Amino acid sequence: MLLALFLRTGILEYMRYLIIIVIVIVAVIAAFMSMDDDLSDQSKSYLNLIQSRIEQGSEAFFFLYGISALEGEDPIIKGKALLAEPQELKNKASSSTNDSQTLSKPMESNELYCRFWEDGCFKKVVSASSKWQHEIDSRATLLSRYKHFFNYNEFSTLTEPTFFTPLPEYKYLNYANRLQVFSSLHSAKKGNALEGIKNLIEDTHLLKRHLALSDDLIYKMILINLISNNLEVIAHIKTVYQIETHLEIPPLTKAETSLEAPMAREFVMLYNAYAAIENDPQYLDSEDIQLPNWLVRLGFNLNKTANRSAEHFAKIIKLSTIPATEFTNSLQQIQLEQQPDIELDNIIGSIMNKLVAPNYVEYVARLHDLSCKIALTNHMLSDKKVAINNPYGDAKFSIQQSEDITCLDGPLKDKHNLRCLSM
Question: CA 190 from chain center: how many Å?
Fold first, then answer.
């Protein structure tokens, strides 16, 4: 009996020490996982950049934010009023826009406003000459606002970067650019082809200036498409009317291709979402997934997550400022680094960094692809005397030509025909 009592006592004592050891180990692991880093200088610089841009104000942004104001109303006043609304009202207004309270715009089904990269679109537009003047006359206010807006030499997005912030009504810029195209096509048809080309080149210069000013990724991509539209029509007028121009589109500058401000804004948008998760772990909950709060707090560190994200954005920014030939050479390495490793001390944060960000490399490629279209346009403007030099490098990428279109090869798929030009 004494032996049994001794054994039982010894086992209990052993179990007590074992439990203490396990608790200590778990506590050390939990403390290790919950230790966060300081924000990196890179992260701070992105936060400060966007905050300073918001604080400096921008009349151009107010004008764009209110560009849908009714005829006779001031877009700047409307833009300021919309920006001052509480977030809940902004979200409600953006999801239920009343057409009677906004400037008239074309129907979505109107083929004159199709996307140029869609099959058959360009031919529909340039062959609809009987409709150009009517569209210009009936939407004169929109075209006037388009010209007014792009004459601003400053621009900063003034909304807070969040996933729920309503965007400016960029579609009005798309519609108005098409009116600009109609105007140049109409001038050419009346015998003023050179004037039509010059107007589009002037417009392209203004769009390129805003390409450098832009601090929003969506806006930057829209500007690329608008410039591409202009280049298509410039080449069309030159080909159809066979006029001498001696004009040239300047290549894209480093400031125009740089994604520094747009990537900083993307970073701040992610940071704000991550900060919301740290303040309230239930922010992550969905119908399919509900994680315990303690698990989120254990596996998610705000600053570590943000700092890793900032490192990735820095690589994308660098990729946007190097020549297209270097972009091609760096592409494989960047794609390998696109998905950071899972970090044991920040499991949830590193998984989120993998999941939430799109493939930003594709956006960089669009900028370099636009350089291809500029090269093709300059070839046409010179009466084909200037050789076509592929910005990606002639040695690696060939020229694909057919009877009515010329395309330059590139490292990624060209979904918007930015490397092609109708001849």
Answer: 38
